[in-house]
Design brief:
about 120 residues, mainly alpha, elongated
């Protein structure tokens, strides 16, 4: 799998697009920040051809984008999974559960993508 990083890149990108759009449409306030993963996922999809060709510069761009998003999604997942008083006051239980699911899914595919990228570099 480490010789085909575009596969996990495509899976991670599709997850980001799907979860970003679902977050946007499931929230009646339609927060623009929910579209960030969808836009980043679209960017990662555009890098897939270059990853398949072995372009090292584009591979580093993919790692950078994935790493930044992974840090944010893990942070958001932990906030939903172990909510503080401020988070509990801001979100109801159903919303916290949805956030755990969405950020957990994005984090899981992000970790898999980072592991594949790093294994490919080694």
């Amino acid at each position: 799998m480490t010789d085909k990083p575009q596969i996990i890149n495509n899976v991670h990108a599709a997850t980001l697009i799907g979860t970003g759009l679902s977050s946007y449409f499931l929230n009646e306030k339609r927060p623009k920040t929910a579209l960030i993963p969808a836009v980043a996922g679209s960017g990662l999809l555009l890098l897939s051809k270059n990853l398949e060709k072995g372009d090292q510069a584009m591979a580093h761009v993919a790692v950078g984008i994935t790493g930044l998003l992974l840090a944010q999604t893990l942070r958001s997942f932990l906030q939903a999974a172990v909510p503080g008083a401020e988070t509990e006051a801001k979100f109801d239980t159903a919303t916290l559960n949805r956030r755990k699911l969405i950020f957990g899914l994005m984090s899981t595919t992000g970790i898999a993508a980072m592991a594949t990228y790093i294994a490919g570099f080694i």
